């Protein structure tokens, strides 16, 4: 299906929980958030029904997010349920990696295609400052364990919140030493992210080129989203950038999002959308459910306006509540 601006929408990001075992400074307050009760979270059967219906509109790829998705029990069960849908080409997962070592085998057996690990630093002290928790070793162990499954594509997502250039160089080094792609994501002014200045792509490229040599842009795509990549001689993986601020890519956006409470959103920045949970629990038919999702997709906004100030429809929830 295409929206009214002609963009083909084939990618659904699903938050399966608002809970997280970290407290990253740009994402959540130190004492956490008021969590949604379990009865208000979509069940796995409800998620599978929604996905079965939305595939008739052309959705082919699904990303599971949170909060931290691996804090929800039996996440691999949902992966398996979604992989059973014949129209779904890929099911992927974004995680902070804290529980990955324990769950990677089950995820692999369920058929997970790709895993993105959020990691902003490989320095223990900086990790604890950013996340307000201990456990960098758990993330690195999870990465090492995941590397034992070559059929699963691995990526690192780094929000460059640490000021020291050496931190970016150290994170990028993971792509030199391992067959994984390291992507740098510009800070977006949503929730606590509004309190931080974003670091632009050109600045990061300059830092990395001083350390590792020339970065050559490549046209190859390595995922479902708008990331573009560079290669560096001697690196096993690629360096990528998701630059929503300096390289606005709304004209290429192919996604919609669903919160853990079942609210379907067409754009990260806007509150507008529809509660699929309410429709389902009020006894809607599959046709009614599909038509409601079709309307949200068709009315997808033309783009974000992060650089031009607030409007009344701005999303007020935190990234952990939306599904980052």
Notes on the structure:
By secondary structure, the chain is of the alpha/beta class. It has a single domain, classed as TIM Barrel (Alpha-Beta Barrel), CATH 3.20.20.70. Helices cover 30% and strands 17% of the residues. It has a 12-stranded mixed sheet. α2 (75-83) links the parallel β2 (61-65) and β3. α2 (75-83) packs parallel to α3 and α3 (100-110) packs parallel to α5 (136-146). It is globular.
Topology summary:
Elements: E1 11-15, H1 44-54, E2 61-65, H2 75-83, E3 90-95, H3 100-110, E4 114-118, H4 124-131, H5 136-146, E5 153-158, H6 165-177, E6 181-185, H7 201-212, E7 215-218, E8 228-232, E9 239-242, E10 255-258, E11 263-265, E12 273-275, H8 276-281, H9 286-298, H10 319-322
Parallel strand pairs: 1-2, 1-10, 2-3, 3-4, 4-5, 5-6, 6-9
Antiparallel strand pairs: 7-8, 8-9, 10-11, 11-12
Descriptive keywords:
324 residues, alpha/beta, TIM Barrel, 12-stranded mixed beta sheet, 10 helices, 12 strands, lyase, iron-sulfur, GTP 3',8-cyclase, S-adenosyl-L-methionine, molybdenum cofactor biosynthesis
User: Got a strand count?
Assistant: 12
Q: Could you name the CATH class?
A: Alpha Beta
Q: Pairing-aware structural class of the strands and helices?
A: alpha/beta
Major sheet summary line: 12 strands, mixed
Strand content: 15-25%
**Low-confidence spans: pLDDT under 50, at least 5 residues?**
none
Mean pLDDT: 90
Query: How many whole angstroms does the radius of gyration measure?
Result: 19 Å
**Major β-sheet strand ordering:** 7-8-9-6-5-4-3-2-1-10-11-12
Give the count of helical stretches: 10
Q: Kindly, what is the distance between the CA atoms of the first and last residues, rounded to a whole number of angstroms? A: 24 Å
Percent of residues in helices comes to 25-40%
Domain module tally: 1
CATH superfamily: Aldolase class I
CATH-scheme architecture:
Alpha-Beta Barrel
What does the overall shape look like?
globular
Q: Predict the CATH topology.
A: TIM Barrel
């Amino acid at each position: 299906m295409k929206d009214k601006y002609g963009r083909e929408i084939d990618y659904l990001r699903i938050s399966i929980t608002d809970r997280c075992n970290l407290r990253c400074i740009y994402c959540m307050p130190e004492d956490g958030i008021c969590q949604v009760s379990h009865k208000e979270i979509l069940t796995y059967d409800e998620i599978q029904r929604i996905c079965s219906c939305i595939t008739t509109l052309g959705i082919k790829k699904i990303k599971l997010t949170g909060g931290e998705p691996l804090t929800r029990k039996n996440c691999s069960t949902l992966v398996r349920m979604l992989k059973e849908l014949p129209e779904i080409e890929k099911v992927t997962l974004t995680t902070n990696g804290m529980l990955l070592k324990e769950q990677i085998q089950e995820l692999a057996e369920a058929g997970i295609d790709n895993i993105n690990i959020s990691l902003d630093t490989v320095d223990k002290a900086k990790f604890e400052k950013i996340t307000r928790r201990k456990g960098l070793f758990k993330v690195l162990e999870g990465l090492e364990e995941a590397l034992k499954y070559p059929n699963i594509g691995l990526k690192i997502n780094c929000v460059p919140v640490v000021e020291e250039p050496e931190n970016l160089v150290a994170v990028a080094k993971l792509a030199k030493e391992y067959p994984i792609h390291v992507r740098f994501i510009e800070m977006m002014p949503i929730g606590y992210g509004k309190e931080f200045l974003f670091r632009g792509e050109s600045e990061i490229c300059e830092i990395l080129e001083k350390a590792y040599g020339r970065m050559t842009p490549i046209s190859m795509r390595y995922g479902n989203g708008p990331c573009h990549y560079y290669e560096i001689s001697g690196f096993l993986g690629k360096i990528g950038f998701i630059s929503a601020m300096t390289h606005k890519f709304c004209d290429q956006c192919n996604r919609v999002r669903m919160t853990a409470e079942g609210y379907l959103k067409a754009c990260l920045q806007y509150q507008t959308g529809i509660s699929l949970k309410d429709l389902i629990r009020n006894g809607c038919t599959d046709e009614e459910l599909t038509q409601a999702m079709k309307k949200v997709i068709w009315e997808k906004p033309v783009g974000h306006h992060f650089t031009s100030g607030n409007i009344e429809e701005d999303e007020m929830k935190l990234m952990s509540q939306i599904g980052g």
